[in-house]
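User: Fold this; tokens only.

Assistant: Input:
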Amino acid sequence: MFRGIYGTISAMLVQEKAVDVSSNNLANANTSGFSKSQAVAEVFGEVPLVRNDHDPQGQQKSTSIGTSCLGVVLSETAVDTSPGTIHSTGNPLDCAIMDEGYFQVTDGNDNFYTRAGSFSLDSEGQIVTPSGLNLQGNGGPLAAGEASSVEIRKDGSVFADGEEIGKIAVFRFQEPSLLLRRGSSLLAETGASGAPIPLNEEDIQLEPKAIEGSNVNIVEEMTRMIEANRAYEAASKAFETEAETASSMIRVFGS
């Protein structure tokens, strides 16, 4: 068993994933409502090592020869739920969540959650995301019909031509970092995140005519990529050394 080879390979795989995560964060640095991800690694627990052979009588026996740690593994890719910077847009249908929570949007079959508050009206007068998903209110999709003006207020109330047509629903999760990414700024609930919990109406705080930017720090992500690349190179060199040692052992002692 070549412990060093297994350890260096696992380290290379973890660093490769870390580069992928940082690359995706950087690609979405200008995506509204995008929450960056973090690759979380952990040490794989020790496992017992057992040598199986036979005693002089030919009976099979197992002898404990210690333990081994097989190296690091990727534990999870967690969503960083820290808020992004609020940018004023002047668009009456844009709004940003000032505290915790997520908007709920739907394609008619599945519900998704996002902090991207850039909305518009579709051809049927419904409030939708840029990709056409319906924004959900407390009573379902919000529709302004043929109203000439639509306004979103700080408490989430939506008015069309001065008449209230509903209130935007905002949800929170017990473990928001464990939501599953379904697009650049869309998230879906998982068993680990828990079910969506609607915020009480008095707890909803929105900033109208504004959107939340991503929470990606470009300098931080570039630094992480450099560190991961260097760690990958170091693990790669260690792998080459372990492979040469293993090759020498095979030549000396036989396969």
